[in-house]
Fold this sequence. Notes:
2 domains, 3 helices
Amino acid sequence: MAVYAIKRGEESVDRLQSRFKSQVQNARFVKLLRERKYFRKKPTKRLQRIRALKREGFRKENLKRQFYSNM
């Protein structure tokens, strides 16, 4: 997943640099590097189960709101 930018004809250095920067942002390298900067312990099975139950509850609430909404 190498990102590189080759100068196109009479393209200015500023434009080349901005094009490279946008390619890096689109590849989401910065976000990935920031996430990997510090070690994060994987959640335990208990914590995963608790979060899954919370998500399920939120989804049920959203369905109720959709069904009973007056819009």
